[in-house]
Amino acid sequence: MPYVTVKMLEGRTEDQKRALVEKVTAAVSATTGAPPEKVTVFIEDLKKSNYGVNGKLQSDV
Amino acid sequence: MPYVTVKMLEGRTEDQKRALVEKVTAAVSATTGAPPEKVTVFIEDLKKSNYGVNGKLQSDV
Amino acid sequence: MPYVTVKMLEGRTEDQKRALVEKVTAAVSATTGAPPEKVTVFIEDLKKSNYGVNGKLQSDV
Amino acid sequence: MPYVTVKMLEGRTEDQKRALVEKVTAAVSATTGAPPEKVTVFIEDLKKSNYGVNGKLQSDV
Amino acid sequence: MPYVTVKMLEGRTEDQKRALVEKVTAAVSATTGAPPEKVTVFIEDLKKSNYGVNGKLQSDV
Amino acid sequence: MPYVTVKMLEGRTEDQKRALVEKVTAAVSATTGAPPEKVTVFIEDLKKSNYGVNGKLQSDV
Fold it and tell me: Do D42 and B46 touch, CB atoms closer than 8 A?
């Protein structure tokens, strides 16, 4: 606790995900007072063909 | 806003997903008053081996 | 199946939710081929104080 | 209803998932009073490279 | 890990939730091999006015 | 995109949530390259009576 889920378009590198987990954990810990070892981060990779905005599938845009 | 997530068995074609995003966005916009460009749709593909009903894995049914 | 979740700002009336469920179910059924009785809709009410865009809590905007 | 989602590291066998669905459905039915045929279970497979604890991506640990 | 979410209609007592957490944790631990102290359970209470099946808001049924 | 959900025990003040949204948005933007105006944050408040660890409801602990 807290549990953080980041949903974003697929294609980020493992280096980007490593940095994301590090920095988001620090931000959550600093602002909620939870110790870093209690912060869990889940990343969800989204395909453009599973993502729609304004009625349009983003793989078409 | 609104954010819509549709979880369904994998195997739908991109044409079906395109139509789904278009029609669901229209339905949400018409009934909530949100403009279509503010409606986001996420699709989640579910494997039968990750789906259980009545205690039975659906890949066995 | 399919399972649809609609997250939106709180404050919609029960009439709006009733219409939302009806129209979204019809849209999902028509485009996926699932019969309407297999379509489930969950609505999640979001408070502005639990919603941030561009780094700003929306209860402040 | 109820709808149960189990998020866990990928790599479980189909036999483990079959047992998980069976036993979790029984546990939910027994404690909530819902009949087993009304219990739905979704499994989400998580990659270690999408999972962070204590600021560290678990694929590095 | 694993992380379990149980979404169900509101109105269950704390005793039912206590039993649910105990029994679901045991079922998940026994079938996945994860130790009980690594199993997390989240309960989500659903209002009938936020739940639709077959195009009908369940608060109307 | 990205969409971030932070689930945590209820009781944080609006000031804490404001800081959380600001700092998490900055962390996500810096590490993914997404502009801040494309980062959305949802906060979910969790009751202790809806949260279980190690088979124990946290309202009992």
Answer: yes
Contact F14 C57 (CB under 8 A): yes
Chain E partners (3+ C-beta pairs within 8 A): C, D, F
Q: Looking at the 3D structure of chain C, how many domains does it have?
A: 1
Residue-wise pLDDT for A4-57, tens only, equals 999 999 999 999 999 999 999 999 999 999 999 999 999 999 999 999 999 999
Sequence-separated (6 or more) residues with CB below 8 Å from residue E41: E4, E5, E6, E20, E21, E24, E25, F51, F52, F53
Q: Could you please report the per-residue DSSP string of chain C?
A: --EEEEEEETT--HHHHHHHHHHHHHHHHHHH---GGG-EEEEEEE-GGGEEETTEEGGG-
Q: What CATH number is attached to the domain comprising F37? A: 3.30.429.10
The two tokens of residue A15 are 């280096």
| CA-closest candidate to residue C39, choices C31, C28, C50 | C28
- Is D42 in contact with B7 (CB distance < 8 Å)? yes
At CB < 8 Å, which residues of chain F contact E? 7, 46, 49-57, 59-60
Cβ(E3)–Cβ(D8) under 8 Å? yes
Domain that holds residue F28: 3-60
Residue D9: its H or E element: strand D3-9
Q: Judge: D14–B49 Cβ closer than 8 Å, yes or no.
A: yes
Evaluate whether C1 touches C34 at the Cβ level (below 8 Å): yes
Selecting from D3, D5, D32 the residue whose C-beta is nearest the C-beta of E12 gives D32
**ipTM attached to this prediction:** 0.98
CA nearest to E45, candidates C12, F47, C36: F47
Q: How confident is the model at residue F29 (pLDDT cuts 50, 70, 90)?
A: very high
Residues of F belonging to the active site: 2
Model pLDDT, residue E56 = 98
Q: Quick check: is B35 catalytic? A: no
Amino acid identity of residue F31, one-letter, is T
* Helices and strands: H and E segment counts in chain E: 1, 4
Predicted confidence band at F14 (pLDDT cuts at 50, 70, 90)?
A: very high
